[in-house]
Design brief:
With 80 residues, the protein is of the alpha+beta class. The chain contains one helix and six strands.
């Protein structure tokens, strides 16, 4: 599992270049956390391609079927 915390200016690198590198390396779970947009996106490697498995934004609760019992209250994550 790999979690990237995006920073301004890193979006193209993280969403394209790194995603492709991790896909080729076989990283099964790749999450992107964007503190500016207040989003979490979780991708899962399926048949050698990443598919969006879960996402949440703002003050929602993030959960992921591959991690039973995991619930992240996003309102507790973002700086106000």
């Amino acid at each position: 599992m790999l979690i990237e915390i995006l920073s301004p200016g890193s979006h193209p690198r993280d969403r394209v270049l790194k995603l492709e590198a991790y896909r080729k390396s076989g990283v099964p779970n790749y999450w992107l956390v964007d503190p500016v947009e207040c989003t979490i996106e979780a991708f899962i490697l399926n048949n050698e391609l990443y598919a969006l498995a879960a996402a949440a934004c703002g003050n929602e609760v993030f959960s992921h079927s591959a991690f039973p019992g995991l619930e992240i209250l996003l309102k507790d994550v973002w700086f106000e």
